[in-house]
Amino acid sequence: MENNDLSKRGAWGSKVAFVFAAAGSAIGLGNIWRFPMVVGQNGGALFVLVYILAVALIGFSVMLAELVIGRYSQRNPAGAFEFIKPGSLWKLIGYFGILTAVCILSYYAVIAGWSAGYLMKTASGSFKTSLTSELSDKIFTEFSADPLQAILFFLVMIGITTLIVSKGIKGGIERWTKILMPILFILIIYLAVRALMLPGAKEGISFYLKPDFSQLSGKLILFALGQAFFSLSLGMGIMVTYGSYISKSDNLVTSAGWVCFFDSLIAFFAGIIIFPTLFAIPGIAPAAGPGLVFKVLPLIFSKIPGGILFGTLFFSLFSIAALTSTISLLEVPVAYFVDERSWSRKKAAILVGLFIFCLGIPSALSSGGMAFFTKIDFMGKMDFIFLSLFLPIGALLICVFLGYVWGVKNAAQEILSGNPRFKLGPLWSFSVKFLSPIAILIILYFIKTIAE
Asked: Is the residue at 433 inside a domain?
C-alpha cells in the first residue's frame, strides 16, 4: 500500500522531538534496572568501559541502519521492507519486528506496573526504618503475587500508554516525551548527586569507575555486548517506525549519535545512583541480581537520611523510564494498522492496547498470581524468547538486508540527505556488513549464558 501523505501519517515537529522520543524509547528498564545489575555481576568499571565501546561500534551502526530504512520508506516496519523490495519475502522482517514489539510490551508493562506500585508504596512510607531484608523480600513477593494489584497496575500503565499513543505523533508522543524526558534527566541528576553524598559513596564510585583490567574475559565482553544491544532496543522495528517520521532535511547520523549518547548517559548515571547507595550499608553485595531494585533498594532507602524522598524520586524515575519505552513499543503495531489497514490512530491504539493487555495477563499472574503460569515461569519464557532471542535475530536480519540486499550504497544516498559529509561511511559500511552481524551471531551462540 502506498502512503506518502505525512500530513495524515504524522511527523516529528523537530529534530529535538525525535531525539527525545527515540532516546525515551531506548531508555527504560534496561538502563535503570538491568544495567546496574549486570555491572555489579561483572566486576564494575571494566564492564562499563567495554559497554560504551560496544554501543559506539555496534549499537550506533544498527540504529543508523534502522533509521535509514524508516526514513527512506516513510512507512511502518512491514511497509518499509515491502516498499524497498516489493513482492519479496523480506517484508517478513517487518512483521517479525512488530510481533516482537507486541510480545515484549505485554510483559514489559507488567514490570512497569510494579514500578508504579512501588512508587505508591515508597511515597506512603511502607518501607520504614524497621525494614529487614526478609521483610523486604516478603513485601515484594506478596505484592507481585497479588493478582488484583498486578493486573491493576499493569492496566494503569497500558492505559496511560494507549492514551498518549492515540493522540498521535505531535499531540501525543512528541508532546509527552518533551515533558517526561526533561523530568527524567532532572531526577536522575538529582539522585546521582544525592547518592554521592551518602556514607560509603567513595567505595561505590571506586567499584564503578576504577577499572581492574585483570578481570577482562570473554564472558565480560559478551555480557557487555549483549547489554549494549538490548539497552538500545534494536531489532523490533521501533527505530524503523520512529525513523519514518523524520524530516528528509534532518541529519540521521547525528540523530542516531544523540540517541546512543543519551541512552548510555542514563545508564551511566543509573550506576552513579545505585552503587554509592549499595555501599551505604555494609554487607550488601553489588551483585545482588534481579531483585536489586524491588528488594534491596527499599531496604537501603529505609536506612539512609531522607530515604522516603530519595526512594519516591527513584521509583518516579523508574516509572517514567518504563513509560517512555512502553509508548514506543505500542507505536510499532499502531503505525502498521494506520499505514497498511487505514485505521484511525485512536481505533488502532485502543484495539491494540486491549489485545496487549489480554496477552499480558499470564505474565502479570506468573509471579504467584496463578499457580500454572507461575510454575512454567511464563514471564521468564516471554523475556527469553522475545528479548534475548528475537531482538538479536531481528537486528541480524536488518544488517543482512541493508548490507547485502538493498545495499549500503543505496542506504548511504539516503543518509546524505541532510548530511552531505558522511565521513563515517566506510566505517559504518564495514560495521553493518561484517562487525555487527558477527557480534550478533556471537550473542546468539552464547544466548544461554546471557540469559542466566
From this structure: no
SS (H, E, C) 350-378: HHHHHHHHHHHHHHHCCCCCCHHHHHCCH
Cβ atoms of residues 233 and 28 within 8 Å: yes
Q: Are 10 and 169 in contact (CB under 8 A)?
A: yes
- Candidates 44, 116, 46; CA nearest to 276 is 44
Residues recorded for the chain: 452
Alpha-carbon dihedral of residues 334, 337, 339, 344, nearest 10 degrees?
-80
The total of other beta-carbon atoms located within 10 Å of residue 249's CB is: 9
Q: How far is CA 261 from CA 52, 168, 254, 338, in A?
A: 9, 26, 10, 31
How many domains does the chain contain in total?
Answer: 1
Concatenating the DSSP letter of every residue in 262-304 gives HHHHHHHHHHHHHHHHHTTSTT--S--GGGIIIIIHHHHHTTS
422 vs 253: CA distance, rounded Å: 8
pLDDT for 359 equals: 97
Backbone dihedral angles phi then psi of residue 142, each to the nearest 5 degrees? -70, -40
114 within a domain of the structure (yes/no): yes
Say what the pLDDT of residue 43 is. Answer: 77
Per-residue pLDDT tens digits for 269-283:
988 988 888 787 766
Distance (Å, whole) CA 69 – CA 1: 17
Residue 409 maps to a domain: no
Lowest mean pLDDT among 106-110, 144-148, 184-188, 198-202: 198-202
CA dist., res. 195 & res. 274, Å (int): 8
CATH code of the domain in which 82 resides: 1.10.4160
* pLDDT greater at residue 155 or residue 294: 155
Span 86-136, pLDDT tens digits: 999 999 999 999 999 999 999 999 999 999 999 999 998 888 777 787 888
Q: Give the residue from 246, 258, 244, 252 showing the smallest Cα distance to 416.
A: 252
Task: Please check whether residue 450 is in contact with residue 222, taking contact to mean a CB–CB distance below 8 angstroms.
Answer: yes
Distance between CA 208 and CA 48 in Å, rounded? 8
Of residues 21 and 285, more confidently modeled: 21
Residue 417 lies in a domain: no
Structural domain containing residue 237: 6-374
The Cα–Cα gap between 123 and 340 comes to: 44
Q: Taking the model in full, what pTM does it have?
A: 0.89
Average pLDDT over the chain, rounded to an integer: 87
Return the half-sphere exposure (C-beta side, CA atoms, 13 A cut-off) of residue 7. Answer: 0
